[in-house]
Design a protein that fits this description.
The protein has 217 residues and is an alpha/beta fold. It has 7 helices and 7 strands; from the N terminus they run ααβαβαβαβαβαββ. It is 34% helix and 22% strand. It is globular, with a radius of gyration of 16 Å. The termini are far apart.
Length: 217
């Protein structure tokens, strides 16, 4: 893939310093998890082909481009409008079409709940669990976003919050398996990173949870 990235990271960091929610510009990097999830989609395109899909935190569009190449009907979301613009550009270059996009912070999920309707058959997420504070909000959110019997395709490089999320998801009845991906990655500093790509299936008979609340009061 040919991926356009921001050329002024310092400016993005300066902007993040004024963000009341302290959202650093993680989206501006090419992370192993996004690459691993894109590769996993390429190996199993039937799981997204012609499916209504949502991506949480699309970043630069690596995973989105793979989903579009596989034939997904994709809605890509991110908290940074710059990320959405670059995602659309990179998808046009690499997949020949751009996804629909939604500017949203998933920690404030009202607009995502509206977009979900009865749920998406497939939800994609790479590197969305950086902090322990995100575990419970993400659990509540995916219960809304993923349709009964649907798939949460989650890539993570072994951070403790991801382990806590997976344990809690299992307790709630999510079932699945994972594969490990060891690269190679674009950044030599990531050479030791091993990404786990999980396919978690939501129970087909579970009722939808109660109203979503923002995790930020």
């Amino acid at each position: 893939m040919s991926i356009v990235r921001p050329d002024d990271i310092d400016r993005l960091l300066d902007g993040a310093a004024a963000d009341p929610e302290q959202n650093l510009p993680y989206w501006a990097e090419l992370w192993p998890s996004g690459i691993a999830l894109a590769a996993s989609i390429a190996r199993a395109p039937d799981l997204v082909r012609n499916a209504r899909c949502l991506e949480l935190g699309c970043g630069l569009g690596v995973t989105a481009a793979a989903a579009l190449r596989a034939g997904a009907d994709l809605l890509a979301t991110d908290y940074a409008p710059e990320a959405l613009a670059l995602c659309r550009h990179n998808c046009l270059v690499n997949a020949g079409r751009a996804p629909r996009t939604l500017h949203v912070n998933w920690r404030r999920p009202t607009r995502l709940r509206t977009a979900a309707g009865q749920g998406f058959p497939v939800v994609l997420a790479a590197d969305v669990l950086y902090e322990r504070r995100d575990v419970e909000p993400l659990l509540a959110l995916v219960d809304w976003l993923v349709a009964p019997g649907g798939l949460l395709w989650l890539a993570e490089p072994g951070r403790p919050p991801a382990a806590a999320f997976l344990e809690a998801a299992t307790e709630r009845g999510w079932r699945g398996a994972f594969e490990e991906v060891a690269g190679p990655w674009p950044d030599p500093n990531d050479r030791e990173v091993i990404v786990r790509v999980h396919r978690l299936r939501r129970g087909a008979s579970r009722s939808r949870p109660g109203p979503l609340q923002s995790s930020v009061d």
